[in-house]
Design brief:
alpha/beta; 8-stranded mixed β-sheet; globular; binds ligand LSE3YFK7; transit peptide; isomerase; delta(3)-delta(2)-enoyl-CoA isomerase activity
Length: about 300
Amino acid sequence: MALVARVRALLLPGSRLRGATLGRAANGGGAGARRALSHRVLVEADPAAGVAVVKFRNPPVNSLSLEMLTELGICLEKLENDKTVRGIVLTADRPGIFSAGLDLTEMCGRNPAHYAEFWKAVQELWLRLYQSNMALGAAINGTCPAGGCLLSLTCDYRILADNPKYTIGLNETQLGIFAPFWFKDTMVNTIGHRATERALQLGLLFTPAEALQVGLVDQVVPEDQVQSTALSVMSQWLAIPDHARQLTKTMMRKATVDQLLKHREADIQNFVSFISRDSIQKVLQVYLQKLRKKNH
Ligand SMILES: CC/C=C\C/C=C\C/C=C\C=C\CC(=O)SCCNC(=O)CCNC(=O)[C@H](O)C(C)(C)COP(=O)(O)OP(=O)(O)OC[C@H]1O[C@@H](n2cnc3c(N)ncnc32)[C@H](O)[C@@H]1OP(=O)(O)O
């Protein structure tokens, strides 16, 4: 079975994500709040507020594996088709790690067809998020490197927990790889050209105070207030008539989106040929081994 079909089938019975009615939330959420589960993503929807909180739960580090990318994409697609939802907050189900970024095991020791499939899924999730008609907020309740940072940058605003361990940035060069043009463009659109150039060349991971200063996040708040702040900021975004906000968002992002749409196939081929190089495979394997050694 194709991965997308398999993941669709995994979505739990009774979930609104399968088209059925969601159960009432067992705890938390306002009156009428609904909860839906898939394996790697938990959705808590509050129709009265028009908001869904999408929680990553892909242990141990919420890495963006092919299955996680696919599942997240399907959840977002369902929410976009749900007329009761106008805004989405992305967060980690458990505080500590928002997302460790792209799953390195998807980029190591596989074949070119796998790399192409994986990169296509990364592109698709970015396109879905960056072009979303929803208001999107990131409640960043954990460390947020590379692909995790990219996810948050696709949102309309970012709230980061005030914990010096929770660094955020596109650190690809520190691994010996580099951020492709559309990662770079997404960051430029948030913090500007010069700050992006410095951040990308040095592979910087910013502390909360630094991230706030450079404009990578909009607010830094105590750890236990990240989600509530993200929800309260969401109400400001949802106070604007949807059509006006959406047209403005499209206008701001269209040129960036069009660049990837125009070069999508070439971008996949570039990724496959870069990641397949022996030297790059070696670098990634050493990086992964270092991460693993820590624990053994
Ligand atoms: C067209 C374009 C052409 C060319 C462009 C070229 C290249 C661009 C391509 C790729 C872009 C990639 C972007 C990315 O996202 S790369 C991923 C970058 N991520 C990181 O650097 C983070 C790495 N992880 C960490 O720093 C830490 O794990 C942590 C701070 C997130 C959490 O620390 P902990 O101490 O809590 O946990 P660990 O013990 O370190 O990890 C537990 C477990 O998880 C494994 N793991 C960690 N991160 C990843 C990951 N990203 N992918 C896969 N697996 C990961 C780690 O190895 C441990 O495994 P074991 O349990 O020991 O087996």
